[in-house]
Specification:
Length: 411
């Protein structure tokens, strides 16, 4: 097919589409929806990848997170993982004392209760994240202070009833007043606010900063049933792998793991959590693209249907073209070009709609850096054109097989 032939066919196709504008729009509606879904899903997944990767890497290249099972995106736990004993403060102390490659260890104690509430006068907030920790928590860069100060070793040693709250807790309870020195109710226990933390620079899109942090031993005093510990370990520069080996050896001894049994704890790094997340997201992206392609399939069936109607409506035109010397290939090219132009326009409209979805997501969730990736834009347009080619073959073949004599007689 020469360029002039394609140009002529495209011109005829555009003329036909313009003369039946509403019908053409309804025909490619499925293509528009399918393409925009691919673009929108691709942009949101790209944004999530960037946002969550930044969050995980904000732990630091020398940071290890130790918990009784693997930290990260988990859809289910094995029966063995559910029955593992919690890590303890003694485990953290053993790591600090017996691991020369470790800079410092910060335990983080979780309460057993599921839903927590803080209250100040008539204002309250539910589903806050209550935890007990030490001053080393601030070394991770997630405790930049807006008001007051962070927890100290003295607060911890003397079990002082003090608390540091996150930015959204401050807004919910105190609005624009200085909260330092005010006493709040934490699940029925009284604690004095000594500081307000700024929202972490790397946080999940739409996530609230609901942190309510108590000194570790104060937490144990106020919540005696709390027993779940997570250990945040910072290795010395360039010694991450060695620190991991040392921690593994110490914890196996501390938790009395037989030499022929696997670890009953998990050590996670930022890069490992990023890799696990991307494996999950790649599967999610594939599933979402397949589901989005259903719209393209529906659009393709609509295109084939309308092209069959077009062949019937233009039977005399096909007969005239054949009578003046048009070959079968010319008829096939004409109708295939019309189908491709139709779905190609639908793909372009879908691309524009997908870009609007990406822009809207960024406006709703400012911390979600959505962008339309080149692969999604290219895939959307290429697939829409391919749909036109595939579903236009049968109508084009039917038109090419018409007998010119019978076609000229058609009323």
């Amino acid at each position: 097919m020469t360029f002039s032939t394609f140009k002529f066919g495209a011109g005829m196709a555009l003329s036909t589409i313009w003369s039946h504008r509403l019908r053409s729009l309804l025909t490619v509606l499925g293509v528009i929806i399918g393409t925009s879904a691919i673009i929108g899903v691709g942009s949101i997944i790209t944004g999530l990848d960037g946002a969550i990767t930044n969050i995980l890497r904000s732990f630091g290249t020398n940071t290890l997170v130790v918990f009784k099972f693997k930290v990260g995106l988990r859809f289910h736990l094995s029966a063995e993982e559910r029955t593992r004993k919690p890590l303890t403060l003694e485990n953290a102390q053993a790591i600090a004392e017996r691991c020369p490659s470790v800079e410092h260890v910060s335990p983080y104690l979780f309460p057993n209760d599921r839903i927590h509430r803080v209250k100040y006068q008539s204002a309250d907030m539910y589903q806050v994240e209550v935890g007990g920790t030490e001053e080393q928590y601030a070394f991770g860069g997630n405790a930049e202070m807006m008001y007051g100060r962070f927890l100290t070793e003295t607060d911890n040693r003397f079990r002082r009833p003090v608390v540091v709250i996150g930015e959204d807790v401050y807004k919910a309870l105190f609005s624009n007043i200085d909260p330092v020195g005010k006493w709040i109710d934490v699940d029925g226990r009284q604690a004095e606010v000594i500081g307000v933390m700024k929202r972490p620079s790397a946080s999940f899109p739409g996530e609230q900063d609901g942190r309510v942090l108590l000194p570790y031993f104060t937490m144990r005093k106020m919540f005696p049933q709390a027993e779940e510990n997570m250990l945040v370990v910072v290795a010395k520069d360039g010694m991450l792998a060695r620190a991991r080996d040392e921690i593994t050896a110490v914890l196996r001894l501390e938790r009395r793991v037989p030499h022929n049994k696997p670890d009953n704890f998990a050590i996670s790094t930022a890069e490992q959590m990023v890799e696990d997340f991307r494996q999950v997201m790649s599967t999610t992206a594939l599933v979402m693209v397949v589901l989005s392609s259903i719209g393209l399939l529906v659009g393709g069936i609509g295109v084939m249907n309308i092209m069959l109607v077009s062949v019937t409506e233009r039977t005399r035109e096909i007969g005239v073209r054949k009578a003046v010397g048009a070959r079968r290939a010319d008829i096939v090219v004409q109708f295939l070009t019309e189908a491709v132009v139709l779905t190609g326009l639908g793909g372009c409209l879908g691309l524009a709609l997908g870009w609007l979805i990406s822009l809207g997501s960024r406006l709703v969730f400012p911390s979600l850096p959505t962008s339309v990736p080149l692969w999604a834009a290219s895939l959307g347009v290429i697939v829409s054109v391919t749909v036109g080619l595939f579903f236009g073959i049968w109508p084009a073949s039917k038109a090419a097989r018409l007998d010119p004599v019978e076609a000229l007689r058609y009323e």
